Amino acid sequence: MKHLFDDALTQIKMLHDTNEHIMNFGKFPDTLEWAGLPSFAIPAAKLMSTDTTLSSHEYEPLRDAVISPWQYANWRETYRDTNIGDDFLSRFACYELFGHQGHFHSETMRGFLVYSDANLYYPWHHHPAEELYFIIAGEASFATEGNEAKLLKPGDTVFHESNQPHNMHTHENGVLAYVIWRNEFDTAPVLTDRLNA
Ligand SMILES: [Fe+2]
Fold it and tell me: 154 CA distance to ligand 1 centroid (A)?
């Protein structure tokens, strides 16, 4: 099954090397060693693998490559011990393709695949790391504090500054995004309680 992650990484590297927003955010890591992470299953991963709303246009090979390892991925449970609610926990999914806790080890950048089912609200949250979202498939509205939400589709990107609160809302489609973190990436995201009241 390692070849599934290799294929995902190859597709992600091709995206990195050809998309100027991603290139400007950070160079793709030079050395990425296979970390041999165990799989960890969550219900939302299976949901993603059967989601028919993830249309992707020219990014279909990338979409299929990052979905393929879903049964072997070490799915994260970032919000397990929060008050975010069971509906969110059962329909939102994220795995770290590369990074210090990723399937490939990197100390310079973290790269995640993030999935949300349709009609789901990912509440306000923030983290010290600077972040870039690239939409691979589907669509979602993204908001940052003080700004109106913007609907993003495949090929679109959004940048989040360090500790800038942001949220995400899906509508009739799910969304699959490639999310990169740089700087101060050891601290996990937390819900921005003052905005979620
Ligand atoms: Fe974020």
Answer: 18
